[in-house]
Write a structure and sequence with these properties.
single chain, Hypothetical protein af1432, seven-stranded mixed sheet, metal ion binding, ATP-binding, antiviral defense, helicase
């Protein structure tokens, strides 16, 4: 009787290959034929047979038949390095195209970890002398591969997979394996890598996205039949039809305010632009804050989706990308309300949120154990996510993010507040976006009140957007920055102005640059004088748990007189309407964003946005503790001779600001090259947010008392996969009650917290919803 080769404890490798093939057929049926070309299907067909060839060793077979009982060497049971070796050998022997070989080899090697990339230090200039995606031809890796090759049952593996392994693989056991590995390395460097490096940057980006598409589809197909109990239902897409008419039903008859008139006018113009630019791929929407960009974008997305559905029968997936968690909830609510206007209740198939606070629920009609896979694969018609999650799906080589990449293809993508993207992502994203819409047949809408210059060659949904800015007279920027103002002087000024604000029922927003300065201002205003005035003081910063922040924003939105003290976490996209804004100095884009919270509805005449230049007790500017010096200097140069700038002149000022940055800042050329040439780069999160300082995170367990017991239950799961998923289900709850403090030599978390299952549980008295986290040196809550 012929020996069979197992892929999983209950599954022969041949059966697994058939399941992957069937899953791929289902997945590519959701996409357009322009994306899943015959060439892509051919690559996926080969990859299905190649990706698990390394499972043919006796060590892996011993392991897979009884994983908990396996006592052999851990590295000997690994299968992806051997799958890479087999793929390269078969490609060399068969004379396969070099770039196809790279896709297949990299996907085979990385389907249980990450798409392989090459350390930059191994490369020299534009050449590729040491370009090697796994460095397999020497040292311990070569010794391990030589040993694993001696463990392979070649005839059984050939029968199980249908891959002809006789030439050259079966001879390997009798050959000088090290010489053969060197031969494969030369093939990889001298032919495969050389072909990659001969491509232009634009063609190399196109190729990288093609590779990610193939890789992404394999990743999902490899798990599909193992993760769901009813594969037929999973593979059949029952598209939910979002409809543009729901927006009219949702809006109804808006009031006749100046801002609503502007919104209605913009809607009409956007509808005309959609009809005129049916073949467009990258669009822009530049409009003043408060002009209803969320609904304008929804109009665009729903119209395009309806068109593709009628023409192809495959409605586009809609992906809404936002820069901050603070505006995820309000955007999700808008789309949920649109669903209700259409007569539907939201579930994961209609609408899915993907971010650190999401609860990972999908739908009650789906078995609980299957929901995580539907969430992780973005199996929804409309996804609302963060920049972090979107850019990791687009650029990060990690398999857990790349599994979603194919969802970015044939999609309608809305990116809001694009001015918040750092300069070093400008060049990479310009090229990657252009490739995404051509190679992967997506459409992208880039939105902001102030578009950065990397957004070139876009089709504007509001071609005459300048007139919208010139018609807005809601606020005036007043620069009180000729002289520095100490934090103590600022607090004294605010206390003196408090009675007038209370008497006039003002809604005032005070935005500071650091947590410490914000706390200082909050405490100054929340004293006896505030109590006597009867005006509530709300505090929003990273010292306040996300759960409390969301509750505070709800109170602010109620529209009653209040004073809000915040850090910049409130400045972009949070839909609040204030009478007066005071802000510590910052780069111009931040100043414009915070101004968008002032007189948002335009019902109060022209309201002031005052900009001050605050310093601490040592005379150090708070702005320089937080922001890039070039951003600050470009802003200072622009306002040097300005004392007041009305809203209608802000657009011109913003354009000058971004042009100044473009000429002085690193716009990410090296990161573009690294992406195109498959080189290692900084983590996407670091490219987006900068290098994070080490900090300690504390859980305010009083806000979720049941969590501690649920954490213990998750930790007690014996199966590691069930344990991992149990912790992932708790991640949103943990994030909602978390606050952090930067590490410093004089502070240790044990001073205020206890270690519990790897998390710091904050002791009672060190947090209050009104003041946030109270660390060493501050008064405890009694």
């Amino acid at each position: 009787m012929n020996e069979r080769i197992n892929s999983h404890p209950h599954l022969f490798l041949k059966e697994h290959i058939e399941q992957v093939k069937k899953a791929l057929e289902g997945i590519w049926s959701w996409h357009l034929p322009e994306t899943i070309t015959p060439a892509v299907k051919k690559l996926l067909g080969k990859l299905t047979e190649l990706h698990d060839l390394g499972k043919g060793t006796s060590a892996f077979q011993e392991y897979i038949k009884d994983p908990p009982g396996y006592r052999g060497a851990g590295d000997e049971k690994s299968h992806t390095p051997l799958s890479l070796l087999f793929t390269l050998a078969i490609a060399l022997d068969g004379g396969w195209d070099e770039l196809d070989t790279l896709i297949l080899a990299a996907a085979a090697r990385g389907h249980h970890g990450r798409l392989p990339t090459v350390p930059e230090k191994k490369l020299g200039g534009a050449s590729c002398p040491e370009w090697d995606i796994d460095n397999f031809a020497g040292g311990e890796k070569a010794r391990l591969l030589k040993k694993q090759l001696s463990m392979v049952n070649f005839s059984a593996l050939a029968k199980e997979t249908g891959v002809d392994l006789k030439d050259p693989l079966q001879r390997l056991a009798a050959q000088d394996v090290v010489k053969f590995l060197v031969k494969l390395k030369k093939f990889l460097i001298n032919r495969v890598a050389a072909k990659l490096f001969s491509l232009s940057i634009e063609d190399a980006v196109d190729f990288r996205l093609k590779a990610q598409l193939v890789y992404s589809m394999l990743l999902e197909a490899d798990k599909a039949f193992l993760a769901v109990s009813d594969p037929e239902r999973y593979l059949k897409r029952d598209a939910r039809q979002w409809q543009a008419r729901w927006i009219d039903q949702y809006i109804g008859m808006p009031g006749d305010s100046a801002t609503n008139q502007l919104r209605q006018k913009a809607r009409r113009e956007v509808m005309v632009a959609i009809d005129k630019n049916e073949k467009g791929r990258i669009f822009s929407l530049t409009a003043p804050t408060g002009s209803g960009k969320t609904l304008l974008a929804a109009n665009w997305a729903f119209k395009l989706r309806e068109k593709t559905a009628s023409e192809t029968g495959k409605p586009s997936k809609i992906i809404v990308v936002l820069p901050f968690l603070s505006i995820i909830d309000q955007t999700t609510k808008v789309y949920g309300d649109l669903l209700q206007a259409g007569g539907y209740e939201a579930d994961g198939a209609w609408l899915l949120t993907s971010h650190s606070l999401a609860d990972r629920n999908y739908a009650e009609w789906l078995e609980e154990g299957e929901r995580p896979f539907y969430v992780d694969t973005w199996r929804s018609e409309l996804i609302i996510t963060t920049y972090d999650q979107f850019l990791m799906s687009l650029m990060d080589p990690e398999a857990r993010y790349q599994m979603r990449f194919h969802n970015l293809c044939d999609a309608v993508i809305i990116m809001d507040e694009v001015q918040s993207l750092p300069c070093r992502l400008w060049q990479p994203l310009e090229k990657i976006f252009k490739s995404l819409v051509t190679t992967c047949n997506s459409r992208i809408l880039l939105m902001s009140a102030t578009l950065p210059p990397f957004v070139s060659d876009t089709l504007p949904l509001l071609p005459g957007f300048e007139k919208y800015f010139s018609s807005c007279k809601r606020y005036v920027l007043r620069f009180r920055t000729k002289e520095k103002l100490s934090i103590e002087q600022f607090c004294e000024e605010l206390e003196s102005r408090l009675p007038a604000w209370a008497g006039e029922n003002k809604r005032v927003l005070l935005t500071l640059n650091t947590r410490r300065s914000a706390r200082r201002v909050r405490d100054a205003l929340a004293g006896p004088s505030s109590t006597a005035s009867g005006v509530p003081v709300y505090f929003i910063s990273a010292d306040v748990t996300p759960g409390d922040r969301l509750e505070i924003i709800k109170k602010i939105k109620a529209g009653k007189p209040c004073i809000v003290v915040s850090t910049q976490c409130i400045e972009a996209g949070v839909d609040i309407d204030m009478d007066l804004v005071l802000r510590d100095f910052a780069p111009l884009d931040s100043l414009v964003q915070i101004a968008g919270r002032c007189n948002r509805e335009g019902k109060k005449g022209r309201c002031p946005v005052e900009i001050v230049d605050l310093v601490d007790e040592e005379g150090e500017r708070y702005s320089e503790m937080i922001y890039d010096p070039i951003h600050l200097q470009v802003t200072r140069d622009l306002i040097e001779n300005e004392t007041e700038v009305p809203e209608e002149e802000v657009l011109e000022l913003s354009n000058s600001y971004f042009q100044g940055l473009f000429s002085k800042k690193d716009t990410g050329g090296i990161h573009l090259i690294r992406f195109a040439r498959w080189q290692e780069d900084l983590p996407v999160h670091e490219l987006l947010r900068g290098k994070e300082k080490m900090q300690y995170t504390f859980l305010v367990i009083q806000q979720d008392p049941q969590l501690k017991e649920d954490m213990a239950r998750a930790s007690g799961e014996h199966d590691r996969w069930k344990r991992r998923e149990a912790w992932r289900r708790l991640a949103g709850r943990i994030a909602r009650i978390s606050v952090g403090v930067y590490a410093r030599p004089s502070f240790h978390p044990q001073q205020i917290a206890e270690d519990y299952l790897g998390h710091w549980i904050l002791q009672e008295g060190y947090y209050s919803s009104e003041r946030g986290l109270l660390v060493e040196g501050e008064t405890r809550v009694l």
